């Protein structure tokens, strides 16, 4: 599978793409389509799964053509098992990263609210931070824009060996509330699409928000979803499935 993602620079475009597909940097192949510039956004292509493995097929076939049959069979077997090896996850020790992120969040929020608290729940290659306080609205921002920016800063604290660790951040329960709102919107829109028999275009959303819409609807058999548009205009389309 593959998606096109955009951002202010290449690194942010990659991060936006990873948020949308729910994968880590090590699980995708990245091709830079446009480096971007002062007046345009960077654009990258993220590829994973069977599509990614097929990118190398022409070169492999060219080499195989000149090899004895036994070597061909051995190489093909190795190629076929490679995707399985790539999916093996190495559990990372997150103690250092957890401490670094906690100290960063504590120092940042205490500039505004000294009573703010930072809690962290650690899972397998995953850290979920919850910040609570009385004056933290500015750290959330419009539609959670500032919260997302802070989460990206937390990702910047990762060392190369910690690249597989996913970091989640919520401030004063905003993200949990936002997720429930999006789930309700997805279900309501799905019902409307089925009732009227037409596609429904939702407002432009961030990659993270679009992913919630897709995830909520993906289990249904009467509607499907897809993302369309580029950059700030990228949005979800909910489509009814017409059974023959």
Task: Give structural notes.
The two termini are about 25 Å apart. This protein has helices spanning about 10-20, 50-55, 55-65, 70-85, 95-110, 135-140, 145-155, 175-195, 205-215, and strands spanning about 1-5, 30-35, 40-45, 115-125, 125-130, 165-170, 200, 225-230, 235-240. Helix content is about 45%, strand content about 20%. A hairpin with a 7-residue loop joins strand 2 and strand 3 (about 40-45). Helix 1 (about 10-20) runs parallel beside helix 9 (about 205-215) and helix 8 packs across helix 9. It has three domains: about 1-55, no CATH class; about 95-170, GMP Synthetase, Chain A, domain 3; about 175-240, R3H-like domain (Ribosomal Protein S8, Chain: A, domain 1, 2-Layer Sandwich). The chain is globular. It is α+β, with helices and mostly antiparallel strands and about 240 residues long. It has a three-stranded antiparallel beta sheet, covered by helices on one side. Strands 4-5-6 form a three-stranded mixed beta sheet.
